[in-house]
Design a protein that fits this description.
By secondary structure, the chain is α+β, with helices and mostly antiparallel strands. It is built from 4 helices and 10 strands. The protein has a 4-stranded antiparallel beta sheet with strand order 6-7-10-9. Strands 1-4 form a two-stranded antiparallel sheet. Strands 2-3 form a two-stranded antiparallel sheet. Strand 2 and strand 3 form a beta hairpin. The chain starts with 16 loop residues before the first strand and ends in a 6-residue tail after the last strand.
Amino acid sequence: MASASRLKVGVDVPWATSWSDEALGQVGPCPSVDGALAVAQVSRPGHGRPLYSRNHLFRQRRSVREMLCPMCGEPTTAGDRWSQTGHWTTAGALRARGFGWALPADLEDSRDLFNAGAIAPLHRACAERALTHCPHLQAMADHELKAFPEAWIVCPLTVEARPPPSPVPQASVAAITFLQLIGVPGHEA
């Protein structure tokens, strides 16, 4: 096991970031997704070295489900939810990418939606601090902070988990890795 880093989680390194001492674990029921099967990951934030741009599976799922700021790990509130990397798209474009099952059937294809990807909104102060210090964010062409809508849809992203070889064949199962977040403007939460 690696020693504790001098970098402070939630200040120098985003709370949702994986660390080199946080290995992937087994598939099993996970409280971050109401007991559904999900890929587990060891939780040792601040140990080893930060793996920037790699979200920790459990912390990412919690950040989306509980609207926790991925930078500091604290709850965000209506009016203080901002995205740096999300972009506007349409329901039709998301359906074309395979997310139709998660969208309400009565949502017209032309309806504007905010695709935040796997990154929950940040507090404005945290987003500004991250933009100031993160080379990845600084290298992006778009530095505009976008207000996150008051309503949203959460879509689980899954992988096929195959059981280890055994004398009794077992079927593979879908296991949640991350949660995709889609903002829906004009709806109340």
